[in-house]
Specification:
heterotetramer, A: alpha/beta, Elongation Factor Tu (Ef-tu), domain 3, Rossmann fold, 2 domains, 7-stranded antiparallel sheet, 7-stranded mixed sheet, 6 helices, 16 strands, B: TIM Barrel, 8-stranded parallel sheet, 4-stranded antiparallel sheet, 9 helices, binds flavin-adenine dinucleotide, binds flavin mononucleotide, binds FE2/S2 (inorganic) cluster
């Protein structure tokens, strides 16, 4: 009955129907939703996620059936729970339904789930590489890391419009650099190309973090391995449960066997992953 | 004499049932593979509010399962091809089971690639006090060696039941495959070979395709369909099996609410197992148990077991 | 050389296919029992935009069908137990068929309670010019005499195919039941007895219960499940049948969009049949045909028939 | 290609995604929704219905799967289509989803469908008995009938609140009488009890119309048979298609065999129905 100290740190997950505080379109199919979640624990590790069900946990319709995993973007703790913010892109049926939830309606929440990021060593340097919806996973990490370390945040997107609202990031004391594939903002090209530009190639005491499309994470992981730098990635495998019971989200490990992305991740040390078979 | 979910002032409902020698405080179990080893749900529900749980299928040795992708969503359902990834029977007994509150009845699910492997796993589980029964998974539709063949061929099934029956004297349930022409025939085989009960249905064999890559979504190609989509199929099979045998039946397939569970009891199930719904709502099983009581109270039913097989058929017209 | 649904300027797509001798301008048919006698859709779509249609199953004499309730909705599906209500073969030929535009290929579906009745109905339909093929409904899961037994027993099925094959020389498709252990085995039986093609799947046998009345919802007790819920099951069976036989396959089950149809072609179907979706959206079949073309254009596929069986399997890992 | 004159009268049905003009709660789970339906024909027979699909004909979710039959309450013809009004009660999943459709969103419509009411003979007398959601079916009938006949409209409900908004009916030149089971408005009891009160028991040239719960229609049909009066009823069988192809909505006929409620009805001469087996 007494939560272990480890559980208390990561925060024991809750399941509840949460009220939508706001849910707004920020352009280019990027949405920002804030939920008032009763029972959300006081501590959320940066990089944890939640399973969201449009319509609530006992929704009327069984199609789509499964909840959708979403990174916790920001948390505002309050008495008895928290307001939890998510950034999401509308890509299919579940996210379309999510975008239709209006203030006052409910969204089912199970979370916070999974293992978050390890922070960079105090006074170390950290480079966060985020692409696409991966940016949602790194805000809390960036905010925490830049309290004690020097942080570079390299953001990539197809074009400037896809970047969404960067105000929160711009308010942080970090080095923000941007790459867009069409060159409409910042560097023209892939975000991984900024990694050299940051002038940190040789730096061994640097920690790398990558969140985004698998090819991007694979590229960052490869670079890190070559440079002998520590690298964390946040994987996005399809999930049914989100809390380690369906075994559906397995990711092959480099030592053979599987890790569960929802339980052992979503954050992994990049060298633990079998990138060939992912 | 328990009365879970009773509204204050409402009549108390006797929820207890006995499934082939497994005494349960209420008829709601959770289905193998959808409830892990029972430890994962502590944050979301009270295990003592359900009848008990069926653990993930165990093999003699640990098993690492299939390469991903292992799951995909379908209309009102999902498909999986996990490949019976599990910690193995010894780790289950020594590491997982001690974490479960003592008063929670556990049914261990057993899988193997030949009857002797099933039998040995059964033997190791039979003397563990908290394990109240065994469920033989004779019906995994996506494991290549063994698995579905046991559940699809009456002779092979008979042999499996015979061998596992010899290996244990605790209650033995056989979990049947829906991928057969006659589930009644398979149920009769189990009864004849001395099984104490039947669980059905396992997942329905299915295929989903990614039209961009032109490949099957699941790396295993075939997978098993579960969830509300298959509920009417499961209900039909439970009803057919209940007509065919006298041993008790655990109804499984798409159960998410108390109303769903009532349908299975009416069709002849003595207990039900909640599966995929646990993923969608980690408190689903407890809510199913509460919903059963609420139905009984609303309908003036004093014991849930009075609902078992109470379906009325129309005069043939 | 047709190019239905082509966007202006987009590459034209060859949509024609041949199903066991039935030449179709595109691979989209409609499924028996979901498109009436073809006349009812004139207000909603252009029959000439689809490959053709399969009419409601016909019997030698008119048949009045089962007592209601005959249908019920289920998660992402519906169940029916219509009982092959139909106007009879003669009224179909003389009253219904003349209302269909001449250029629309019609496949007549045939049902009977014994092989000779099937055969006689086939004979009467064989000389009608607009009827391009026959589909033997060997798989109706809710008609008491005949029906499902034909589709569930390989020997009985063989006899049915043999007798109907003798009765007609026009293209003969056999519509199989999904309620079997091995659809591949049944497909092989059809091929061996000279069928020109296979249609699958018919509905999955199911049961739904009303917990207020404690009765089955359908007066017939059992019914057939159709709709998106069964699509992954249908895809699996089409794929299994396609591995087993060389004769062409019509894929059926939960198809509502062009993407759904693509999956069936990739799994080995030469054509598809749109069923329950016609009820939800009476223009669904035409939209499926248009969606196929749109997919082909987007993917640079110049002939839809290049998609047939083009599923790539992973190297076994 | 040329519509027959009969079809032109009843109006050839259309299928389209219709825009919600308004959709409002009128209390006690009664809702009023107006749709702008392109292609809706100029003529709708009183008593016809439409199949409605929340979310539109190519909706995102396949659960619930089937469209929902709803009587056409009122029609306002306009160029190229019509605004069509429906009165509905929220009773299950489909009607709940319908009630969530907001102005500007779409609802799939197939209609008008079925055979409507025959009007009473000119200068005849008509008694309309409507219970529950059956009132939605009789407004256009009442409005047309009272142009040339004397009309009694007997309305029944559990209580006054369930009656919903009667303004439209009160504006018609007809004799409106009300019965509520709890006596909260009008006669306390069943609506069929008003049939005697109307003092029309012996009147042979009277036409009866009944819309509502099956027991109520059965009672009216029985009375009509006893009195030798003509009686029309509007049946509500479960439907999949609504236009005569699934054969799911069959109603047993008194002469054996079945009629299709969606194609041959929903309005039937009461003596054609096998009330025992309905
Ligand atoms: C740990 C984790 C954190 C995530 N955080 C975010 C986030 O903060 N913001 C954001 O926009 N997206 C995030 N995603 C991706 C997000 O879950 C998917 O975009 C979403 O599930 C798509 O649902 P859909 O119904 O709209 O799409 P569909 O394509 O219709 O979904 C079909 C199925 O595929 C699954 N699926 C589709 N895309 C993905 C994906 N990229 N990852 C995992 N499953 C997928 C769905 O969950 C569903 O089961 C995260 C995924 C994971 C695993
Ligand atoms: C010709 C016709 C006209 C109708 N007109 C109206 C009207 O104007 N206003 C109104 O409020 N209701 C009307 N109804 C009833 C209305 O169709 C049902 O209330 C509605 O389908 C319920 O859907 P649901 O999903 O909310 O309920 P659920 O109970 O969840 O529905 C489950 C299934 O049962 C069917 N069903 C449930 N109740 C009925 C019913 N009474 N009749 C037919 N099918 C039913 C549904 O269509 C669905 O397929 C009419 C029915 C018919 C056949
Ligand atoms: C991801 C997943 C894993 C499963 N693993 C097992 C298993 O290990 N052993 C077993 O007997 N059944 C297994 N099943 C089948 C379920 O126990 C159950 O029979 C089936 O899912 C139907 O019930 P449902 O529709 O409620 O999920 C699994 C099902 C799912 C979805
Ligand atoms: C109401 C209804 C009636 C049907 N009647 C017939 C029939 O007469 N003959 C037949 O071969 N199949 C019949 N079918 C089965 C369909 O043709 C089809 O095989 C099945 O519905 C699966 O396809 P779907 O999921 O696209 O509907 C019927 C299906 C429905 C829903
Ligand atoms: S999503 Fe179920 S185990 Fe990870
Ligand atoms: S509802 Fe389909 S025939 Fe009447």
């Amino acid at each position: 009955m007494v939560a272990s100290s480890e559980a208390a740190l990561a925060g024991s997950p809750t399941r509840s129907d949460a009220e939508v505080v706001f849910n707004r379109d920020e352009g280019a199919d990027n949405w920002r939703m804030r939920l008032r979640v009763p029972g959300w624990p006081r501590q959320t590790a940066p990089g944890q996620f939640a399973m969201l069900t449009p319509g609530g946990l006992t929704k009327l319709s069984s199609d789509p059936l499964l909840p959708r995993p979403m990174a916790v973007y920001r948390v505002f703790t309050e008495a008895g729970g928290a307001e939890v913010e998510f950034l999401y892109k509308v890509v299919g049926r579940g996210t379309t339904l999510l975008s239709q939830a209006e203030a006052g309606e409910v969204v089912g929440v199970v979370g916070p789930l999974g293992q978050g990021f390890s922070l960079p060593p105090s006074k170390g340097k950290a480079v966060l590489v985020a692409g696409g919806t991966g940016v949602a996973s790194v805000y809390e990490l960036a905010a925490l890391a830049c309290e004690k370390s020097e942080v570079w945040l390299l953001m990539g997107a197809r074009s400037a419009a896809d970047l969404g609202n960067l105000e929160d990031f711009e308010a942080l004391p970090l080095n923000l650099e941007i790459a867009t594939e069409d060159g409409s903002r910042g560097h023209r090209g892939l975000v991984t190309e900024l990694m050299g530009a940051a002038g940190l190639d040789g730096e061994e005491k640097l920690t790398l973090y990558a969140c985004g499309p698998t090819p991007m994470m694979r590229a960052v992981a490869k670079l890190a391995a070559e440079r002998g730098q520590r690298c964390f990635v946040s994987l996005e495998n399809p999930m049914a449960c989100g809390f380690g019971v369906c075994l559906g989200c397995a990711a092959p490990r480099s030592d053979g066997g599987f890790s569960l992305v929802c339980r052992d991740g979503p954050v992994f040390d990049a060298c633990e992953i079998d990138w060939e078979n992912l | 004499m328990t009365s879970d979910g009773a509204k204050p002032g409402a009549a108390s409902v006797d929820t207890s049932v006995n499934v082939g020698g497994i005494q349960l405080r209420n008829p709601v179990l959770t289905a193998s593979g959808t409830f892990g080893y029972g430890t994962e749900f502590a944050a979301f529900m009270d295990l003592r509010k359900i009848g008990g749980f069926v653990a993930k299928s165990l093999t003699l040795e640990p098993r690492s399962g299939n390469m991903p992708a292992r799951i995909v969503e379908t209309p009102s359902g999902m498909m999986n091809a996990i490949g019976i990834e599990n910690v193995g029977v010894e780790a289950f007994i020594h590491e997982k089971l001690p974490q479960i509150p003592e008063e929670v009845p556990v049914v261990a699910s057993v899988f193997g690639t030949d009857p002797e492997m099933y039998a040995e796993t059964c033997r190791r589980l039979s003397d563990v006090p908290q394990i109240k029964g065994l469920e033989i998974n004779a019906s995994c539709p996506h494991v290549k060696s063994g698995g579905i063949e046991f559940g699809q061929n009456p002779k092979v099934l008979a042999e499996l039941v015979r061998v596992t029956r010899k290996a244990t004297s605790i209650p033995l349930l056989i979990k049947l495959s829906p991928n057969v022409t006659s589930v009644a025939e398979m149920a009769k085989v189990c009864e004849a070979e001395g099984a104490d009960g039947i669980s059905l249905i396992n997942t329905v064999q299915a295929l989903e395709v990614n039209i961009e890559t032109r490949r099957p979504v699941l790396r295993n190609v075939l997978g098993g369909l579960s969830g509300p989509a298959i509920r009417p199929i499961a209900l039909r099979m439970v009803w057919q099996a209940a007509q065919a045998v006298k041993i008790p039946i655990c109804g499984i397939g798409g159960i998410a609410t108390g109303e769903d569970a009532v349908k299975f009891l009416l069709c002849g199930a003595t207990a039900v197992q909640v599966g995929t719904a646990n993923y969608v709502n980690p408190k689903a099983a407890q809510e199913v148990a509460e919903g059963l009581v609420a139905y009984a109270q609303a309908q003036g039913v004093s014991a849930l077991r009075d609902l078992i097989g109470a379906l009325e058929l129309p005069e043939s017209g």
